[in-house]
Design goal:
The chain has 376 residues and is mainly β. The chain has strands at residues 4-7, 15-18, 21-23, 29-31, 42-44, 50-55, 76-81, 87-91, 96-100, 106-111, 132-137, 142-147, 152-157, 163-167, 189-194, 200-205, 210-215, 221-225, 237-238, 247-252, 258-262, 267-271, 276-281, 291-292, 301-306, 312-316, 321-326, 331-336, 350-356, 359-364, 369-374.
């Protein structure tokens, strides 16, 4: 198999590059086996869309020869892009943050497999995290990480490569609304996302059962959904006065509507611009079924993102599928996995999704792959 990585450049076509070894930012080198690197592999779906592997290839069970154990990534969860269109990936189990460069190399910019809290105020390459779930990058190339079990959001300046804590004291609890995010208490920050206008960081505060916003300019914290109690919110009620089951991810569209994904709740909910919450998809029962409203069944969905049309992409973890919710039709369809998209691909615990420059990027976490699908 030819060893190569595939990258996206907004003003170029696909750029495959031969890679013999990977030089990490701390000076170490990963020498990769024939099956470790990403293969340039494409498949046309029934709609004429292309499915491509950026890390990995078809597994033996899919009719290929790639071995997930040989991947340079270990349980990748989050994907995001900087202003230069370089892809960044965080690993949940591996504990590392990687940057994919245009020359075909993967540069480790932070982290190590140990779980701890270390590095603030110094070079990010020496930082240690504890259960990173995902990341987001501002338009000014500030990389933000949900450092889940450190109860913090960490920030890496991609210019000087230094790290600091952006939000959270590290103490478990619920505290800090109306104050500086650095003085706030959280309880398991699962996922973060940046609003389309680049003004707000949405924080999914799992065990506090709330969605909290952080103003990126002032660092002021506020709660926008959830009252701390466990339960299914009633349609049309005030989001801040409503219970949530177990919010895992949240992201907003260009109109200011906030979508909230619940794993145990097996539902997608939406907070409208007036602060009212309702369930837009999902019966609440675990299963697999496309459709409209409560016809839909999810299997412990884990993460979401939105495209420029306001469509919501969902990493449906235990179903091994990527689902799409269209707010115009209110319909959920499956676009990858379980025979959809590329019929050969069998996803295992997809956890991270990211839309960038006309493509949907998927972290096939338990198979250590990064896949992308052209969206229309």
């Amino acid at each position: 198999m030819r060893r190569c990585f595939l990258f996206v450049v907004s003003w170029l076509f696909l750029l495959p590059t031969l890679v013999i070894s990977t030089a990490l930012a701390d000076g170490t080198v990963i020498t990769e086996s024939d099956q470790a690197a990403a293969a340039v592999s494409k498949d046309r779906t029934s709609k004429g869309e292309e499915v491509e592997f950026l890390v990995g290839n078809y597994l033996i069970k899919e009719g290929g020869q790639w071995d997930a154990k040989q991947s340079p990534l270990y349980r990748p969860f989050g994907i995001a892009f900087d202003s230069k269109n370089r892809m960044h990936v965080v690993e949940f189990e591996g504990g590392r943050v990687y940057r994919f460069d245009f020359d075909g190399s993967i540069q480790k910019i932070a982290g190590e497999p140990n779980k701890n809290y270390r590095g603030d105020g110094g070079p990010a390459i020496h930082a240690v995290f504890n259960g990173m779930h995902n990341l987001a990058i501002t338009s000014e190339d500030q990389l933000l990480i949900s450092d889940t079990w450190n109860q913090r959001v960490r920030k890496i300046d991609l210019g000087d490569q230094r790290i600091e804590t952006f939000a959270g004291t590290g103490e478990v609890g619920f505290k800090g609304d109306g104050s500086d995010a650095r003085d706030a208490h959280f309880h398991d920050i699962m996922c973060i996302s940046i609003s389309p206008d680049q003004k707000i960081l949405h924080v999914t505060d799992l065990k506090n059962r709330r969605i909290r916003n952080i103003n990126l300019s002032t660092r002021a914290v506020s709660t926008v959904a959830g009252n701390g109690e466990k339960g299914v919110p009633k349609n049309g009620t005030a989001a801040t006065e409503s219970p949530l089951v177990d919010p895992r991810a949240a992201a907003s569209d260009r109109e200011g509507r906030l979508y909230v994904l619940e794993r145990g709740g097996n539902a997608l909910r939406m907070v409208d611009t007036e602060g009212r919450i309702r369930t837009v998809a999902g019966s609440g029962e675990r299963g697999f079924r496309d459709g409209v409203g409560d016809e839909v069944a999810f299997g412990a969905p884990k993460h979401l993102c939105l495209d420029n049309q306001g469509r919501v992409y969902i990493a449906d973890d235990l179903n091994g599928a990527i689902r799409r919710y269209d707010p115009v039709s209110n319909r959920v369809t499956t676009i990858l996995g379980r025979g959809f998209g590329d019929s050969r691909i069998q996803l295992l615990n997809p956890h991270g999704v990211c839309v960038h420059d006309g493509y949907l990027y998927v972290a096939d976490s338990s198979q250590n792959r990064i896949i992308r699908l052209q969206i229309r």
